[in-house]
Q: What sequence folds into this?
């Protein structure tokens, strides 16, 4: 995934999804400029996202508007579930197991499925066998349907009875020590930025645009953990897990920047888009998940 595409997904997830889920391409280009992404890069990324089935376009006169597809909304909602939470969830004690035997002539589909499983937090237990303690049955059925691989896949809801403990499965499937080092680095860098920006905002020395840039970069950086952290339930994590401290820092920092950042977004958005479509219950400083999210559960 290109840096431009990844930042566009951040802007959609953190802003556009709360304002009718649709934006004029000119407004999107304007919002991407502060991050160093030019018009050509934005248009190329949007075109790629359409081919991936994440966006679809709509013409109004001579203007093109882009909206997240059902698949795009599902992807961002899943990311939001994992980003905007403070504490690891409780575990039901069961493992979701997906086993597949996809023929060699469908190698590209097999490779794409592996990437999707990794992004969803599944761990590779053995060749063709992936496991997760998280409740992702719905997402897996969507993946199977997307790639038309029903005849090659089996799903199981299982209880692990040994002989090794559940932690042995975790150690085999996920490099928790490496992940924790990444969280420690995030905490070191962003705790310092948080203190500086808190002081600047308090003294009126930080503009709305600067807050918009800082908030998007914060979310963009934290989103990277979606590709490395399986977001395991607390029963399967070390007693002291840096991911918990990183989540708390992220939430505090996000709330600090939220309102002025949203003011900048709305100033740009209202020019050629419908500000009246803003979610009535949307509060920039709160961590409500994206519109349409259900309760059940590559930069």
A:
């Amino acid at each position: 995934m290109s840096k431009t595409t990844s930042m566009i997904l951040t802007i959609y997830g953190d802003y556009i999804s709360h304002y009718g889920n649709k934006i004029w391409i000119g407004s999107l280009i304007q919002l991407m400029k502060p991050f160093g992404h030019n018009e050509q890069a934005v248009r190329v990324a949007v075109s790629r996202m359409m081919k991936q089935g994440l966006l679809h376009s709509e013409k109004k006169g001579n203007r093109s508007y882009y909206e997240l597809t059902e698949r795009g909304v599902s992807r961002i909602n899943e990311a939001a579930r994992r980003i905007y939470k403070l504490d690891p969830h409780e575990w039901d004690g069961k493992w979701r197991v997906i086993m597949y035997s996809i023929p060699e002539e469908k190698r590209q589909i097999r490779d794409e499925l592996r990437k999707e499983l990794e992004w969803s937090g599944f761990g590779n237990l053995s060749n063709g066998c992936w496991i997760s303690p998280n409740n992702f049955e719905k997402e897996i059925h969507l993946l199977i349907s997307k790639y038309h691989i029903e005849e090659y896949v089996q799903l199981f809801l299982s209880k692990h009875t040994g002989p090794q403990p559940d932690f042995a499965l975790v150690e085999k499937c996920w490099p928790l020590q490496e992940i924790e080092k990444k969280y420690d680095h995030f905490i070191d860098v962003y705790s310092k930025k948080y203190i500086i920006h808190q002081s600047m905002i308090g003294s009126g020395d930080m503009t709305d645009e600067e807050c918009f840039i800082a908030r998007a970069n914060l979310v963009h950086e934290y989103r990277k953990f979606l590709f490395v952290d399986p977001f395991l339930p607390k029963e399967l994590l070390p007693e002291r897990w840096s991911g918990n401290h990183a989540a708390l820092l992220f939430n505090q920092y996000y709330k600090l920047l939220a309102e002025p950042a949203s003011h900048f977004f709305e100033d740009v958005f209202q020019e050629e888009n419908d500000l009246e479509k803003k979610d009535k219950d949307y509060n920039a400083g709160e961590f409500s998940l994206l519109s349409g999210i259900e309760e059940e559960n590559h930069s």
The chain has ten helices and seven strands. Residues 288-299 have pLDDT under 50 and may be disordered. The longest strand covers residues 55-60.
